[in-house]
Amino acid sequence: MKEVKVQIIGFGFIGQSFAEVLTKRREYLKRNYNLDIKVVSISDISGTIYGDIDLIKALRTMKEKGRIVDYPNEAKVKKSSGLGIEAIENIEADLVLELTPSNIRDGEPGLSHMLAAFRNSKHVVTSNKGPLAIAFKKLKEEAEKNGVEFKFEASVGGAMPIINFAKETLAGTKIISVQGIFNGTTNYILTKMTRDNVPLDIVLKEAQEMGIAERDPSYDIDGIDTASKLVIIANAVMDIDATIKDVKIEGIRKITPELITLAKEDGYVVKLIGEVCKNKLEVSPRLVPISHPLNVGGTLNVAVFYTDIAGEVTVIGKGAGKETVSALLSDIISIYRCR
Ligand SMILES: NC(=O)c1ccc[n+]([C@@H]2O[C@H](COP(=O)([O-])OP(=O)(O)OC[C@H]3O[C@@H](n4cnc5c(N)ncnc54)[C@H](OP(=O)(O)O)[C@@H]3O)[C@@H](O)[C@H]2O)c1
């Protein structure tokens, strides 16, 4: 049995969803993969707890108090006011699960967390796209230099398999281009505008009330989130050395119900599409034929790979939510399967 000591850095929605799944899956992972995954530290903005952590107590602490340092006082679990970086530098572990908020301005705090993990010979598994969108090459190089793995399936398309799918399942096949819908919020908005013939601001307000859209929706609506994911696909799947600055971006603010109706009359829907083709990265609203595989509704994500020997291959899945944990788990398993 291989014991894997994991540090969770960022204990919000995804961190807690991971912990919840792990409480239910620990025996299954031991039995089927010979892996004993142990969370040895948890950090959020209140500080860090480390030692013999009971995940059920950690989850209860978050539910009741909202801060991990309010974990019950007990001898086997220590507390520190240090944040993620101190935890990575000072606590012994094999793998860092980096789950702090995505920041595409400078990638922080995730970027420093990941680099510190590599320096300390720890593998990194993450759902945080920010650092990858601005410093993919550097992160990959640092991981390689230190002989550790860097896995980020959850950072694009949540639970939808895309990175590992392209690199492993389609290994040996040349991917010529990738087109997809990589942002569930804008897909929900466009789907609803198409169905109910209502303007963007009304659907947006409703999406915010339902918790599908952020209070500041510009990241989604202006195509920046889609662009970040496109950069990760370009680097990871197509070996293109790109950053967010290389993406031509147009969001969906100009899309009106009238335009959608006109498109519908001609047999098309309007979708926010991200495309990597040759060295060109572009995000823009496009007309998609109603019967095309890219026409998925609601908050779903989709990616179509255009390949040399496999033809067109399409994957569809949940781009966000609790389901994202499946991608984190498969990344962890794949690290130890290879080794
Ligand atoms: N939510 C989804 O469905 C989804 C899907 C795919 C990918 N992602 C990505 O996954 C990541 C996590 O998402 P989320 O929804 O879980 O976000 P979240 O709920 O905002 O959680 C982020 C966590 O990071 C903590 N944090 C912030 N700065 C920190 C620091 N310096 N050291 C340690 N912890 C720190 C926050 O603490 P406080 O809360 O105390 O500030 C919080 O616990 C993001 O990068 C997101 O883009 C999310």
Strands, total number: 13
Strand order of the largest sheet: 4-3-2-1-5-6-7
The percentage helix is: 40-55%
Question: What is the succession of H and E elements?
Answer: EHEEHEHEHEHEHEHHHHEHEEEEH
The CATH architecture assignment of the largest domain turns out to be: 3-Layer(aba) Sandwich
- Overall 3D shape: globular
List segments where confidence is low: pLDDT < 50 over at least 5 consecutive residues: none
Instruction: State the domain count.
Output: 2
By CATH reckoning, the class of the largest domain would read Alpha Beta
Ligand inventory reads:
NADP nicotinamide-adenine-dinucleotide phosphate
The CATH topology name of the largest domain reads Rossmann fold
CATH superfamily of the largest domain: NAD(P)-binding Rossmann-like Domain
Largest sheet: 7 strands, mixed
Plain-language structure description:
The chain is an alpha/beta fold. Helix 1 (13-33) packs antiparallel against helix 2, helix 1 crosses helix 12 (325-338) and helix 7 (184-196) crosses helix 8 (200-209). The longest helix has 21 residues, at 13-33. The protein is built from twelve helices and 13 strands. The mean pLDDT is 96. The strands form two sheets. The chain has a seven-stranded mixed beta sheet with strand order 4-3-2-1-5-6-7, sandwiched between helices. It has helices at residues 13-33, 55-64, 84-90, 110-119, 129-145, 163-169, 184-196, 200-209, 218-221, 224-238, 257-265, 325-338; strands at 2-9, 35-44, 47-51, 77-80, 95-98, 123-126, 150-151, 175-181, 247-249, 268-277, 280-289, 300-307, 312-318. The chain has two domains: 2-159 and 322-338, NAD(P)-binding Rossmann-like Domain (Rossmann fold), CATH 3.40.50; 165-318, Dihydrodipicolinate Reductase, domain 2 (2-Layer Sandwich). The protein starts with a strand and ends with a helix. The structure holds NADP nicotinamide-adenine-dinucleotide phosphate. NADP nicotinamide-adenine-dinucleotide phosphate is lined by residues 9-15, 43-46, 83-84, 99-102, 109, 127-129, 154, 158, 320-321, 324.
